[in-house]
Amino acid sequence: MTKVSFDDVPPKSSTVTSYDERHAGTYLRLLDAESAGADWREVVMVLFGLDPVNEPERSRLIYDGHLARARWMRDSGFKHLLRPQGH
């Protein structure tokens, strides 16, 4: 399995970016983990390969930022994906 690289902070664009498209699977997994009540520390280990004990601030920043972006994609970002290209 190829690991997808990620930024510490996802985009804050009001439109879907190429970063969002590359990380759509990660966003879905984050939302699924949240729904299941998974501990955020386990999630960052599995999805981002981070050690929340050694990098607690960075781990939390990455988790919170990507979860917020995943929620945005779920709640409104998906609408941008449904628009025809060039509109």
Quick take:
The chain is mainly α and 87 residues long. The protein is built from four helices and no strands.
Description of the structure:
Residues 11-83 form the T6SS Transcription factor RovC-like DNA binding domain. The protein has 87 residues and is mainly α. The protein is built from 4 helices and no strands. The radius of gyration is 13 Å and the shape is globular. The N and C termini lie far apart (35 Å).
How does the SSE layout of this entry go?
Layout lengths: L17 H5 L1 H13 L3 H9 L7 H27 L5
**Secondary structure tally: strands:** 0
Secondary structure class reads: mainly alpha
User: Spans with pLDDT under 50 lasting ≥5 residues?
Assistant: none
H and E order: HHHH
* Amino- and carboxy-terminal Cα gap: 35 Å
Contiguous helical run count = 4
Shape from CA axes?
Answer: globular
Radius of gyration: 13 Å
Please report which band the strand proportion falls in: under 5%, 5-15%, 15-25%, 25-35%, 35-45% or over 45%: under 5%
User: On the 0-100 scale, what is the average pLDDT?
Assistant: 89
Instruction: Quickly count the domains.
Output: 1
> Level of helix content?
55-70%
Main β-sheet: number of strands, strand sense, barrel status? none
Domain T6SS Transcription factor RovC-like DNA binding: 11-83
InterPro entries: RovC-like_DNA-bd
Key words describing this protein structure:
mainly alpha, globular, RovC-like_DNA-bd
